[in-house]
Amino acid sequence: MVDEAVDARTHELAERYSAARDRLDAAVDAAGRKRGDVELMVVTKYFPADDVRRLLGLGVRCFGESREPEASRKLAELAADDPTGGRPGDRAAVFDMIGSVQSKKAKSVAAWARSVHSVDRDKVVDALSRGVLAALDAGERSDQLGILLQVSLDGDPHRGGAPVDDLPELAERVRAAPGLSLAGLMVIAPLEGTADRWMSLAAQVREGFLADHPEARELSAGMSGDLESAVAHGSTCVRVGTAIMGPRPLVSQ
């Protein structure tokens, strides 16, 4: 019975992933962009390591997590399957932190994440830098940690993200921090207003940001409900959870 359950879940994930992949390809084509320019990140928060294993078996290689220590526990389970030893710069699959990072948990995040998409405060920059240096010294990672600055598009401090006016100073903080690499920007479209409105604004903010930081080309934007709009406005990474994983489990893993 266990095998039948596993096969059913694998089949479900395969169908959902294929549908999301088709949506993304269609969005890229509609935007006149090149296929492969937009990364499809599968958001696996709340779901068990077994689901990640199934996705790995399906060829998925990019995952997003947003809860620590859930992510660390999951990665520890998966490390036993990974001949590279599971270090961020060595493993075949990549795992990014896409949720808010508490300073006290930055050290743990720095040990497993390829990139952090949600940096919006100096305090978090400094904590992640210390965490990366500790992870490098301990042999837990072999590369720098990518940093995306989360932008507040509507100025609501309760939703996370740095105000647009704070981006220049925050970017310089990242560039000066040992162990960190400024990779780009991340946005979450506010609930009020249309996705096109917010993604258009994100594209404008990014254009200004690239003028000063041409190396920071990543734009993490778009989720299950608005990925088409995000791709049309220049997203390089869409973060898809529900459309692939299904409804969240009633009890978090």
UniProtKB/TrEMBL annotation:
<feature type="modified residue" description="N6-(pyridoxal phosphate)lysine">
    <location>
        <position position="45"/>
    </location>
</feature>
<dbReference type="Pfam" id="PF01168">
    <property type="entry name" value="Ala_racemase_N"/>
</dbReference>
<comment type="similarity">
    <text>Belongs to the pyridoxal phosphate-binding protein YggS/PROSC family.</text>
</comment>
<dbReference type="InterPro" id="IPR001608">
    <property type="entry name" value="Ala_racemase_N"/>
</dbReference>
<protein>
    <recommendedName>
        <fullName>Pyridoxal phosphate homeostasis protein</fullName>
    </recommendedName>
</protein>
<feature type="domain" description="Alanine racemase N-terminal">
    <location>
        <begin position="30"/>
        <end position="249"/>
    </location>
</feature>
<comment type="function">
    <text>Pyridoxal 5'-phosphate (PLP)-binding protein, which is involved in PLP homeostasis.</text>
</comment>
<keyword id="KW-0663">Pyridoxal phosphate</keyword>
<dbReference type="InterPro" id="IPR029066">
    <property type="entry name" value="PLP-binding_barrel"/>
</dbReference>
<dbReference type="InterPro" id="IPR011078">
    <property type="entry name" value="PyrdxlP_homeostasis"/>
</dbReference>
